[in-house]
Amino acid sequence: MALDYTTTIVIDLPRDKMIALFDDVDNLPKWQKGLKSFEPLEGSPGMPGAKSRLTYQMGKREMVMIETITKRELPDAFDGTYEIEGVHNIVENRFSELGPDRTLWESHNIFQFASLQMKLMGWLMPGMFRRQSQKYAEDFKAFAERGVDVRDT
């Protein structure tokens, strides 16, 4: 079973400024709620082929995922895969200028489920995955435009 969707959001910043914030790994915990650590494993972080371990605290549960960068064509595109037990997530990000001070961020997600438990979750609660992706985009927008840090909320 696979879950396939796209989220979009408009960031009220010039694309080059938006990309600079998006591309800085030190900013990740500021807009990805629950991110405890980002640990490079191999390659140069953010570059194609690079692998990193991201550790999240989700309520009482700790989640560890492995990120592999598959495409880096900034300022237009940035893609990666994210592996967590029972789930393979492909993310394709596209960034388009809507004007001198507005950027459209489109994020296409494909979740592939391996375990029965995750297949059931994807089937029963597909909106949960889309809502989480949209929440990260909205949190990034608040961080980029107004300096809101999710760790302070």
Please tell me what the overall shape is.
Answer: globular
At the first level of CATH, the class is Alpha Beta
The largest sheet, given as strand count, sense and whether it forms a barrel, is:
7 strands, antiparallel
**Cα-based radius of gyration, to the nearest Å:** 15 Å
- CATH arch. level architecture: 2-Layer Sandwich
Compute the number of strand runs: 7
Oligomeric state of shown chains: single chain
CATH superfamily: START domain
| Strand residues, percent | over 45%
Question: Which structural class is indicated by helix and strand composition?
Answer: alpha+beta
- Level of helix content? 25-40%
With strands numbered from the N-terminus, the spatial order across the biggest sheet is: 1-7-6-5-4-3-2
Integer average pLDDT: 91
User: Are there runs of 5+ residues with pLDDT below 50, and where?
Assistant: none
> Can you write the helix and strand succession as a string?
EHHEEEEEEHH
| End-to-end distance | 35 Å
CATH topology, what is it called?
Answer: Alpha-D-Glucose-1,6-Bisphosphate, Chain A, domain 4
InterPro entries: START-like_dom_sf
Protein name: SRPBCC family protein
